[in-house]
Amino acid sequence: MIAVIQRVSEASVKIDGEVKGEIGRGLMILLGIEDADAYEDIQWLAKKIVNMRIFPDENEVMNKSLLDHEREILLISQFTLHASTKKGNRPSYIKAAKPDVAIPLYEKTIAELEGLLGRKLATGEFGADMKVGLVNDGPVTIIVDTKDRK
């Protein structure tokens, strides 16, 4: 799994002009799922996300987590994070999981994060044409790949 994690002041996702999910301060996360991903990847990534100290403390040092501030998450699936650009000019998405694999893993990721946070997440809709808007706070953007954890 690849996650692009952005600390935001606000973020939203629209589908067909209607707001599907929106948050205030927190994290907007783009999530790419590949065939090799498993429940262990979800567990590791979810713990990493909720405990990542990227929110400012009283001294304006990034030393607080989502749990410390009770901030929100907007989670959006994005298969293009697994694009291969090694050959030619047209990206290949061969590593990206097909919906029959990706949807259950996406749903388990939502459930895992909600369990750790003790509250609901805002989400996009898997496979939909989504319009994402955000105000990156900092800016802070971090890329995490579960295959690089060891």
Folded structure, characterized:
Homodimer. It catalyses: a D-aminoacyl-tRNA + H2O = a tRNA + a D-alpha-amino acid + H(+); glycyl-tRNA(Ala) + H2O = tRNA(Ala) + glycine + H(+). Its EC number is 3.1.1.96, 3.1.1.-. The chain is of the alpha/beta class. It has a single domain (2-148), classed as D-tyrosyl-tRNA(Tyr) deacylase (D-tyrosyl-trna(Tyr) Deacylase, Chain: A). The chain has helices at residues 39-51, 66-69, 99-117, and strands at residues 2-15, 18-23, 26-32, 55-56, 62-64, 72-77, 122-123, 130-145. Strands 1, 2, 3, 6, 7 and 8 form a 6-stranded mixed β-sheet that branches. It has a two-stranded antiparallel ribbon with strand order 4-5. Strand 4 (55-56) and strand 5 form a beta hairpin. The two termini are 14 Å apart.
Low-confidence runs? none
CATH topology: D-tyrosyl-trna(Tyr) Deacylase, Chain: A
- SSE string: EEEHEEHEHEE
Query: How many angstroms does the end-to-end distance come to?
Result: 14 Å
Q: How many independent structural domains?
A: 1
Q: Give the class from helix and strand content and strand pairing.
A: alpha/beta
- Give the CATH class: Alpha Beta
- For this structure, what is the CATH homologous superfamily? D-tyrosyl-tRNA(Tyr) deacylase
Name the average pLDDT: 95
Q: Into which percentage range does the β-strand content fall?
A: 35-45%
| Number of distinct helices | 3
Give the radius of gyration. 15 Å
Biggest sheet architecture: 6 strands, mixed
What is the CATH architecture annotation?
3-Layer(bba) Sandwich
Q: Which bin fits the share of residues in helices?
A: 10-25%
Count of β-strands? 8
Which outline best applies? Answer: globular
